[in-house]
Write a structure and sequence with these properties.
The protein is of the alpha/beta class and about 180 residues long. Helix content is about 40%, strand content about 20%. Strands 1, 2, 3, 4, 5 and 6 form a 6-stranded mixed sheet that branches. The protein has a two-stranded antiparallel sheet with strand order 7-8. It holds the Pfam family Flavodoxin_5.
Length: about 180
């Protein structure tokens, strides 16, 4: 089974998740390519798709959205999984006790659920390196509220990413070897 992992990443954390998903899928016997999302990416050669993006202000980045919209009919006929990254910090809940992963589901999840019937949708914690921020994000982070909303660190849960990749691998049609990265 040939799988395309498509991602949108502003600072590299989501790209890292996409690469890790691909690594696990390969270790389980699948042929996998990883590409940054855009309308120019060709979906035709692939049997299945894992599509994700960093989420900002409740929405995916432009590239993965353009990819999906260009290929929506093809994607609707093939196995698809969607993921997002974005929440930062070590707490699974906000100050009011709400689940951060559930609260930060991008608007595209709801929009694409009916159109694509994805086999799975996940939100993962992200990472933030203040030295890589663009000027405006650096300015926001200088504010006390900005530092609280944008804490520095790598909060990605690699065990959760690996487990989800193994779920995807097990759900993909075809003969594959059991395996995976620990």
């Amino acid at each position: 089974m040939t799988v395309l992992v498509v991602y949108g990443s502003r600072y590299g954390a989501t790209r890292g998740i996409a690469e890790r998903l691909a690594e696990i899928l390969r270790s389980c016997g699948h042929q996998v390519d990883v590409q940054e999302g855009s309308a120019l990416v060709d979906a035709k050669p692939y049997d299945a798709f894992v599509i994700g993006s960093a989420a900002y202000q409740g929405s995916w980045l432009k590239g993965p959205v353009e990819f999906v919209m260009r290929h929506i009919d093809l994607l609707a006929d093939r196995p698809v999984w969607l993921f997002s990254s974005g929440p930062l910090g070590t707490s699974p809940t906000d100050d009011e006790g709400r689940d951060l992963l559930e609260m930060t589901r991008p608007s595209q999840f709801m929009e694409l659920e009916e159109a694509l019937a994805p086999r799975g949708m996940r939100v993962f914690f992200g990472a933030l390196d203040p030295d890589r921020l663009h000027f405006l994000d650096k300015m926001v982070r200088r504010l006390p509220t900005g530092r609280r909303l944008l804490p520095a660190g790598d909060f990605r849960d690699w065990r959760a990413v690996d487990a989800w990749a193994r779920e995807i691998a097990a759900d993909l049609p075809g003969d594959v070897a059991q395996g995976g990265v620990s």
